[in-house]
Write a structure and sequence with these properties.
alpha+beta; 51% helix; 415 residues
């Protein structure tokens, strides 16, 4: 084996021109495969991030009737439901506070109408869609939790405009009723388009459910949100809930699958493009390498004839040629590793831009863009092995015509 390795090294080092050509071709192939593996890994991480960020669940809303707290609590006891959040939305006027102004495109209120803020009573503010979808971020204090009383979280911009901080108190007024709440947390983020000041995230207070009840005309809920352990349990949990003796004809039930279906559809499209790319790169690589290696083998007929004349078997010749290609492939793999970071970013931006452009704004989930960085050691090793398999297959295909000839026929080609 040491003799074969020595011959292979001498052959590669002495044919520097042809070796460089093979090196460049293999580097391009390996870089493309490593970049594909890196982007695929990033998309898988994004898929898992979406699944974690928006847990499976369903929402019950009033239709033509009212959703009472008692009915909502009965659904919470259904098998498969792991968490709940009762929501009551309304508007109120904060005492002695200046609200964040509407953009120029918003509805302009008359001077004698006091602007109202949005008030959303919740059991758990961390389960509100804005927080679950990463549109809002709690930056100070804590969330509203079940059992809180006279507590609220508010937008950091509104608090800064009025000189408020965590621990301060705010009085909310509606139809002659009022409630004073203590600020327990501040958040940031925007809610997108709003036509009224109360629809802006900057002018929204999230309070405990009881505080919102003190302002509401009735005790009905705007909606009740329920979590299940996994997406596989979602259908069964909804079916069990509908088996309860509730006025379902007057209620609406909606699962949250569509909340992240747009993002997942985009990810699936990207993965489809990557599969096509992998197949295309592999087939093109085999075709190019076979074409190059055929001339590489034909250019060595004289060397092959001499080795055969001194008793070297075809098997040892084939092993030597494969060792030569392995040496080149190792160097190409190193160069591919150096280039994979930038190429992965370019490839990721390209395929994601083509695949997800139609999904923008449709998912309702604010998911951070995937991080297309250099491939991990595992991804790199897998891509290199695939590239090496392509090289070996191409080499065998290119050498078949020569290996099928008898030694006498090969020697006759030298004349």
């Amino acid at each position: 084996m040491s003799l074969l390795l020595k011959r292979a090294w001498l052959s590669v080092s002495r044919r520097i021109g042809k070796s460089v050509v093979l090196l460049l071709i293999m580097t391009v192939i390996f870089t493309a495969l490593v970049a594909e593996a890196s982007v695929r890994s990033s998309m898988q991480a994004l898929r898992e991030s979406v699944s974690r960020g928006v847990p499976a669940g369903f929402v019950v809303r009033p239709g033509s009737g009212e959703l009472s707290l008692t009915d909502a609590q009965s659904v919470s006891g259904v098998q498969g439901v792991t968490g709940h959040n009762y929501v009551r939305g309304l508007t109120a006027t904060p005492s002695d506070l200046k609200l964040v102004e509407m953009p120029a495109s918003g509805v302009e209120l008359s001077g004698d109408v006091a602007p109202e803020a949005g008030v959303t009573g919740v059991t758990r503010s961390d389960l509100i869609h804005g927080f679950a979808a990463k549109q809002y971020t709690l930056v100070e204090g804590r969330h509203i939790t079940e059992g809180d009383q006279n507590s609220a979280i508010m937008h950091q911009e509104l608090a800064a405009k009025n000189g408020l901080k965590v621990g301060d108190r705010v009085t909310l007024n509606r139809d002659g009723k009022s409630v004073t709440v203590t600020i327990v947390g501040l958040f940031t983020g925007t809610s997108g388009k709003a036509s009224l000041p109360s629809e802006m995230a900057e002018n929204t207070f999230y309070t405990d459910l009881a505080s919102s009840g003190e302002l509401a005309a009735g005790q009905g809920l705007t909606e009740a949100q329920y979590l299940v352990s996994s997406a596989d349990e979602l259908g069964a949990a909804i079916a069990r809930a509908k088996g309860l003796s509730l006025p379902w004809d007057n209620l609406q039930v909606e699962d949250n699958a569509k909340t992240f279906s747009g993002v997942l559809s985009g990810i699936a499209t990207v993965e489809g493009l990557l599969n096509l790319m992998l197949a295309g790169v592999s087939l093109a690589s085999v075709a190019i390498l076979v074409f190059v290696l055929v001339f590489w083998v034909r250019g060595r007929v004289h060397e092959i004839g001499i080795l055969l004349s001194v008793g070297t078997s075809k098997k040892r010749l084939l092993v030597q040629f494969l060792i030569e290609l392995t040496l080149v492939a190792l160097v190409a793999g190193g160069l591919a590793a150096l280039a994979s970071d930038q190429v992965s970013r370019m490839l990721g931006d390209l395929v994601v831009g083509q695949a997800t452009g139609a999904e923008d704004g449709q998912s309702g989930v604010n998911v951070p863009p995937p991080n297309f960085a250099a491939a991990s050691a595992f991804d790199f090793g897998r891509a290199w092995l695939l590239g090496y398999a392509v090289v070996l297959l191409s080499a065998v295909v290119a050498m078949i015509p020569m290996l099928r000839l008898k030694p006498k026929q090969i020697l006759s080609k030298m004349s």
